[in-house]
Specification:
- The complex is a heterodimer of chains A (187) and B (196).
- With 187 residues, chain A is an all-alpha fold.
- Chain A is built from 9 helices and no strands.
- In chain A, helix 8 crosses helix 9.
- Chain A is elongated and about 55 Å long.
- Chain B starts with 5 loop residues before the first helix and ends with a helix.
- By secondary structure, chain B is mainly alpha-helical.
- In chain B, helix 1 crosses helix 2, helix 1 packs across helix 4 and helix 2 packs antiparallel against helix 4.
- Chain B contains 7 helices and no strands.
- Classes of the chains: A mainly alpha (187), B mainly alpha (196).
- The interface between A and B is large, with 63 and 60 residues.
């Protein structure tokens, strides 16, 4: 994951207190996990503005549904799951309201102006290829390759089995290689 | 001449994409680089090889938007949750909230000499809070010095009266987190006792 989180004991304490309506405890949860949530949304949605909106919505939903959190996954995984669902909804809404190319949205995200030109170009090609993957394969790659989550964490966040996540991942790598070959022919 | 064939290249490429190299001298990274240089078919995956041999934290990093952004984020989230926070406002919950905030402020004050203070109303930046050891010498005595006052209604926290003093939980060490949990429980019991 991108950032550290609280120990299991403190996490349980904060969740229990938040469930009882304790705002300070929920504030502490937000502070501990906001960057992870923001980064997941940013990777899927591309822009800072969209990620900001998704992160806000994620914590609003988390507050409303804390009572349903069973504790069989880490809180961070549960929050990533919500962030994924919120981001998917945003992507679907965008598709419905415009013909914006999702690949373009994702390809524009997170590029640093200081990056060396060649590296930036290479990264750009990979991001375009990732953006063109089927949704599940794309999410697995974004969470596994770019967010550094384990197969188990990705499986819990996406509500899939570990085997299914591995299958999606390997199919995604196969598709990426094919896509990179096609891009190689184009350039 | 490459040490590995195309099939092995594909396996190692997928492995490194999934797990990232174990260090700068990971032999798998060198093997796929070498194979991609020697094999025209696999050379077309050069961009993927470049990604695969990059350490996990440097793969298309997304920067932390920074303290000013998080302050604003916190204010907006408080605004959206405000109405919900006020639901179910009863004395016991208020006392518990006061205890939590008090204990968190207590940790914050113990660090106050060294920690930057975020703007009121926002969340402190997780990246700006230094990791300060919260040892016994630095902590106030049990009953001491910090007067948490009477329990306040939940609305009292609408403007984040903790004043941004509380440290980011993810920046606390395990020992500090355990101390915080203990302190939370003590404070809650103390507030409940004084309320009755």
């Amino acid at each position: 994951m991108d950032d550290a989180s609280a120990s299991p004991a403190l996490e349980r304490e904060l969740i229990d207190r938040s469930r009882r309506g304790d705002r300070a405890a929920f504030d502490a949860i937000v502070v501990a996990h906001r960057l992870t949530v923001y980064r997941v949304a940013r990777r899927i949605l591309g822009s800072h503005e969209a990620a900001d909106e998704a992160a806000q919505e994620t914590f609003v939903r988390a507050w409303k549904s804390l009572g349903q959190f069973r504790g069989d996954a880490r809180l961070s995984t549960w929050l990533v799951r919500i962030a994924l669902n919120v981001s998917r909804t945003q992507v679907a809404a965008r598709r419905a309201e415009s013909s914006l190319d999702e690949a373009e949205l994702i390809a524009d995200g997170g590029e640093s102006p200081d990056t060396a030109a060649e590296r930036a170009e290479s990264g750009q090609r990979v991001r375009r290829a990732v953006a063109a993957l089927p949704p599940r394969q794309r999410e697995v790659v974004l969470l596994k390759v770019f967010s550094g989550m384990t197969y188990e964490e990705v499986a819990a966040a996406m509500e899939l089995s570990v085997g299914a996540v591995k299958a999606h991942f390997h199919q995604a790598v196969h598709n990426l290689k094919r896509r990179m070959s096609a891009l190689g022919v184009e350039r | 001449m490459s040490r590995i064939d195309c099939e092995r290249f594909s396996t190692l490429l997928a492995e490194l994409l999934a797990e990232a190299p174990s260090g700068p001298s990971d032999p798998r990274a060198e093997a796929i680089r070498e194979h991609a240089r020697a094999c025209p078919a696999c050379a077309e995956s050069a961009d993927l090889v470049a990604l695969a041999v990059t350490p996990a934290g440097r793969r298309d990093p997304i920067d932390d938007p920074g303290p000013a952004y998080w302050d604003d984020f916190g204010r907006r989230l408080h605004g959206r949750l405000g109405a919900r926070f006020r639901i179910g406002r009863v004395a016991v919950l208020a006392a518990a909230a006061a205890a939590v905030a008090g204990a968190i402020v207590w940790v914050g004050m113990a660090r106050h000499d060294q920690a930057p203070v975020a703007a009121a109303g926002g969340y402190p930046s997780a990246t700006s809070a230094p990791a300060v050891a919260l040892d016994d010498a630095a902590a106030p005595d049990e009953d001491a010095s910090v007067d948490f006052g009477a329990p306040e209604p939940l609305d009292a926290y609408a403007d984040d009266d903790a004043g941004g003093l509380f440290p980011a939980v993810d920046q606390l060490s395990k020992a500090e987190q355990e101390r915080l949990v203990r302190r939370l429980k003590e404070e809650e019991a103390r507030v409940k006792r004084s309320a009755t």
